[in-house]
Amino acid sequence: MNRAGIYSLLIPAAALLAYANSLSGPFIFDDLPWIEANPHIRHLWPLWNTLQPPQGAAATGRPVVCLTLALNYAVSGLAPWSYHVANLAIHAFAALVLFGIVRRTLQGPRLHDRFGTQANGLAAAVAVCWAVHPLQTESVTYIIQRTESLMGLFLLLTLYCVIRGHHSPRRSRWYAAAVICCALGMGSKEGMVIAPIIVLLYDRIFLADSWAELWKQRSALWLAGLQPAQILDRSGSDAGRLACSGNGMGVGKCRASGIFGRVVFSNFGADFKRSADSGHGGRPANVFTAGRRGDADGNSRLEWPIDVEPAL
After folding, report:
1. Are 146 and 67 in contact (CB under 8 A)?
2. Which SS3 state, helix, strand or coil, does residue 303 take?
3. What is the pLDDT of residues 157-201, one digit of tens each?
């Protein structure tokens, strides 16, 4: 077995050792309305009813989470052990995907000369540290917080599929998988709305040499992949307000993603024009060009790239 295979066994083993004592934990806090008092998870058919959140829940969607809870109920009823096993499995799988992302990033053309020979060990170290870090405790041991871990898993899978697609002769299959994973993440938690922007920035930094090249190679992917975020972010329907529901945190994410998207795409347009005008396809300016500049009164103010002002 090669080193990558060995690390692929060690990473979930580390996660299991860290969280094995959580498997006997009871239902607590929001587990009670989402599991014990939720009639929708007690059957798998009709499917539409299974995907509904419990009555009175703050969230207005998260059908993927509801489906996983129904599958757990089919396995163990109201015994918490299978729910904890599922949470741990989701977390361990996410750590493996992170290992793959870091490994392929370090072996990519941008970083290969510096880190290529140590890519497996460094990626494994990152994945293990992430898997056993105390900040992950709540999303693993608190059952209903699988909303966070599922969203994180699908975000990582979306990114991984884009990376694999870039280097694969069968790009369309990997890109289709990326869009599916992105949509599943949207159905897990509202924060997934930022995933297309994260993947877009990774694409520009580590895969494409310019925004123009990125658009030429993957315009279809981004038009299709960004569509679920646009639906969640802008739709006026109840389902569309998913990204702006709950205790108000979703609204902040909604607005922040809109601002960040405008900044990114404004820079994309400017870079595309600069590349076309120069005629030599020069390396584009960094997206993060915001800086602080003093005004006439001596006060510091934030200057946004190419005069894009935030509209909160």
Report:
1. no
2. strand
3. 999 999 999 988 888 899 999 999 999 999 999 889 889 889 999
Name the amino acid, one letter, at 125: A
- Tracing tokens 């460094």 back to the chain, one arrives at 122
Residue 300 has pLDDT above 80, yes or no: no
DSSP symbol at 111: T
Q: What percent of the chain has pLDDT over 90?
A: 51
Half-sphere exposure of 143 (CA within 13 A, CB side): 28
Distance, in Å, from the CA atom of 9 to the CA atom of 4, rounded to the nearest integer, reads 9
Pair 94, 153: CB distance under 8 Å:
yes
Residues 198/160, Cβ–Cβ less than 8 Å? no
Looking at the chain, the number of H-run helices and the number of E-run strands are 14, 2
Long-range contacts (CB closer than 8 Å, 24 or more residues apart) made by 303-310: 304/263, 305/263, 305/266, 305/267, 306/266, 306/267, 306/270, 308/262, 308/263, 308/266, 310/259
Residue 268 half-sphere exposure toward CB, CA atoms < 13 A: 20
Tokens of residue 190, six digits: 């509202």
| Residue where the block lists tokens 């109201």 | 78
